[in-house]
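pasting for ref
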Amino acid sequence: MRKYELMYIIRTDVEQEVVQSTVEKFQGIITNGGGEISKHDLMGKRRLAYEIKKFRDGHYVLVHFNAEPAVVTELDRVLKISDEVIRHLIVNDVA
């Protein structure tokens, strides 16, 4: 398994329950695929550096996890089609 870092931003116009269910959905993809989450941080609502899809703020979520590349591919696919997520980035965590 490899180490990865995932950062994604959830829209601010959704309910808090939707934010929580979205976070749980992505945690489930990682753990159901055989990965393990080492750190999960819901950083809260923050101002974006620039406007994305007409949004100025977003709920930031940072996840450090270990998984196989197939899990990361599936996670990336689901993040791309999720309406709640306005931006995401998955990188190898070499540190």
